[in-house]
Amino acid sequence: MPELPEMETYRTMLNERIAGRVVRDVEVTREKTVNVPVDEFRRRVEGRAIERVDRAGKMLLFRLDDRWGATRGGGGAAAGAPAGRGGVATLERPEASVGADADAGAATADTLALHLMLGGSMFYGSPDEAPDRTAQVVFTFDAGKKLYFHGLRLGYLHIYGPEELETKLSKLGPNPLDPALDAEAFAARLRRARGAIKFALTDQAVFAGIGNCYADEMLFAAGILPLRKTADVDDAELRRLFAAMRSTFAEAIRYGGYMEDPLYAGDERTGGYNDRCKVYDRGGEPCDRCGGPITKTESNGRKVFYCERCQR
Length: 312
Ligand SMILES: [Zn+2]
Description:
Elements: H1 4-18, E1 21-22, E2 25-28, H2 38-45, E3 49-56, E4 59-64, E5 111-115, E6 121-125, E7 135-140, E8 146-150, E9 156-160, H3 162-169, H4 183-191, H5 197-201, H6 212-222, H7 235-254, E10 295-299, E11 302-306
Antiparallel strand pairs: 1-3, 2-7, 3-4, 4-5, 5-9, 6-8, 7-8, 10-11
Helix pairs in contact: 1-7, 4-7, 6-7
Bound molecules: zinc ion.
Zinc ion (ZN) binds next to loops.
């Protein structure tokens, strides 16, 4: 499943390609992938520009431009309304913004939240470049370029107004790469979690974006066994884990994460970290550091990889 580095790679590459561009057409072939009726989903996305792509944990947030922006802020602003949005006039203004004070700049813009979960991926390009996979959602931009969302069986592409988005994001813990997060705050948050250190790291309410692969990688880098109780991990070890978390993510982002589906034709960046994983998915292979075999086990229904000699 894609984690922080994979989504960060997608975020950067998507912003280079689609930021500021208008979604001309939306196709949804699997209704369950979206959270509103397909007609409504299309109406809220078609004709909107994707202002930018942000990331929250393992989710990508496609920020749509403000449908009502042209009519907010009073005098003459409407004159600046882009042409070609005829259909918009027939829509009702969202309830939340009725009577809102213009000064408050009540945000009415929608955001698309994408979670790829297991098996999801994206492709950006023309139809002849796209992989032969069933897409659950396809966005068409100008010049025939399309953004395909593949493998969204468990994953989803939901549309949220500002308040719904706020509610959704409030369940996530902080970004582990937030520059304001230091080793002490990192340790304090982990200490509040119960159970094994690996599962504290992958709890999205503790930190958002760490999953199965990178938890194992950062625990290997820090020399800590993944199934040790968090309560038994001492301060010095948690400081090492903080440094390992930062360096593991920095390297994984630099090499485009470990998932190998390219985002576009000629994409050389995506998946470059796969060969650099030290323990994840390497059960039985020799450890890079000591030559001993990597142990693969399972706990809470999840795979766990580590080196018995290098981690304690
Ligand atoms: Zn080892």
